[in-house]
Amino acid sequence: MTNDQRLLCDPPPLPGIFITEMTRTLTTVAMQLADADAVVSRAQRGDPVALEKLYRAYAPATYNLARRICRTTEDAEDVLQETFYEVCRSIRNYRGEGSIWSWIRTVASSKALMRLRRNKYRDTDELNDELAPARHASPALRLDLEAALDRLSPTARAVVWLHDVEGFTHEEIANQMGKSVSFSKSQLARAHQRLRLWLDGGVA
Amino acid sequence: MSQEHLSMELLLAVRDGERSEPEQVAAHAHVASCEACRSELDRLHQRTAMLRALPTLTPARSAFPAVQRQMADDLRHRWQRRFAIGGLAAAAALAIAVVGNDLAHPAELDASEQLETAMTRSEVLERALNAWRPETRAMDAHTAEIVIELEDRIADVDGRLERARRLAEQVELWQERVGLMSALVDVHLTKATNVGL
Fold first, then answer.
1. Domains of chain A, with CATH numbers?
2. B92 Cβ partners below 8 Å, 6+ apart?
3. What pTM was computed for the model?
4. Between B56 and which of A28, A113, B66, B117 could a Cys-Cys bridge form, CB atoms 3.0 to 4.6 Å apart?
5. Is the pLDDT score of B58 beyond 50?
6. In sequence order, what are the residues at sequence separation of 6 or more whose Cβ sits closer than 8 angstroms to the Cβ of residue B190?
């Protein structure tokens, strides 16, 4: 990749407030355990203190992921509990390929997507629907990002969050959703068209 | 490509540095020469940065106590299964011990003592099997066939016992019953030990 080409892919300079917010958020998400290997090793031997230490270190990021994907706080709390129950039961199977957070994050996203599928059947809500029921007065109204994200369909919101924020690849998302890579890509593109329209007032 | 602006899918491909398709390679070149698309790409980058900058949402309460309860329940169930298997094994061992003793000293027992011993052994094995509740355990077709065969033969012995009047005949039937019950316990015990159910 040449320098010119790299420039196209690199993000433009951001206003100061974004940089501050990003630093804060990334610091929180990246709150890795300084002695992660030792804690994981103890947790694999069934040490309850080590398991609780893992929970304390990664529960906020896990809950955040779950809450961004799930519709309600109750669902997100269930996903958090299910994730760490799975982590406690299966930590022996973690082989150290990738960081412990990558492993926990994959468990969490799988549980959250499972919850979406369950709710889909319960609510007779199409998984690939265009939009969630409108919760705001006018689509022309400029929305803040939280509200715009909330207004996306559950699937589109999950794809945006998993790909753009959590860093999952389209292959990983497709695999977890039981869909194709092109499905994941088109969901991401549609989601960004919607966000573009709602946030910047452009053409969807 | 140079006349039309990029679709969101291609803008995303440019943002993510994808170049596996010719269309994506052309999209990179297009952005370099199209101010409108470059501006869209900047917006896309900003939107992505804003998404990543959203505050971390935190749970109202810790889920760890609930996780600990689930783990404790798991542990309790595992122990219950182990004790159940242990109980079945102990009953089998007890019955074998009694059988062994009888076989070692058959002449020392008269017919009524032999009858009483056989009935006791049968009861020990039956109690263990009832406590094990085999009807609640999953089993493969082959094991199920053996179990059904043994249970049919036990039912047949029970029918003959109801009609048996002579002491010697009763002793023989009760001992046959103990043999069949032991075999039944062995089948369940082997399965439980191998499968962990």
1. 13-125 (1.10.1740.10), 126-204 (1.10.10.10)
2. B125, B128, B182, B185, B186, B189
3. 0.64
4. A28
5. yes
6. none
Say how many C-beta atoms besides its own lie within 10 A of residue A82's C-beta: 22
Q: Report the residue of A8, A47, A80 to disrupt the B interface, i.e. the one with the largest count of B CBs within 10 Å.
A: A8
**What average pLDDT does this structure show over B97-119?**
69
Query: Smallest Cβ distance to A63: which of B57, B66, B74?
Result: B57
Residue whose token pair is 């369950």: A118
Task: Choose among B45, B59, B62: nearest Cβ to A11.
Answer: B45
Q: What is the residue whose two structure tokens read 């695999």?
A: A175
Contacts of B64 in chain A (CB under 8 A): 52, 55-56, 59, 84
State yes or no: ipTM above 0.90: no
Please say whether the beta carbons of A192 and B8 come within 8 A: yes
Tens-digit pLDDT profile for residues A116-136: 988 776 554 444 444 444 444
